Structure formats: C-alpha cells, structure tokens
Amino acid sequence: MGILVWIIFGALAGWVAHLLTGRGGGLIVNIIVGIVGAFIGGFLMSLFGGAGVGGFDLYSFFVAVVGAVVLLLVLGLIQR
To answer: pTM for this one?
Structure first.
C-alpha cells in the first residue's frame, strides 16, 4: 500500500479505537495509533493463526482496530 493509504487507514483505525476506548487524541495521534495498531494487530493475529493486515479491506481494518485498542489500553495502564 502507498504511504497515503496507510495514513488514511491509520487515521480511521485510530479514530475508531479512540471512540471505543475513550483514549487517544487528535488527527496525528490517531494516525500513529492506527498504524502502530495495525502492526500490533497483525502480530496478535499471527499468534492465533490468522492473517495480519494485507490490504485495505474490512478484515484488515478490524485487525488494525483491535491492535489500536490494545495499544491504547496498554498505554492507559502504563500512564496510571
């Protein structure tokens, strides 16, 4: 995927994770959380035998959101 698609994908995944957890921030933070969340979600899915983020589709979006939610929850625990 191109860098612009990763930025859009990350922004959307980070925004949804922000809505689900109540954590996160503005556009730049959501982009970073979404992109890092895609990597975390891909890693977690590979542990369970699933596929990671492979393109711009609903499954990959789900994986990225799951990873972003995990990231935000772990960061919330660390900040306490």
So the answer is: 0.85
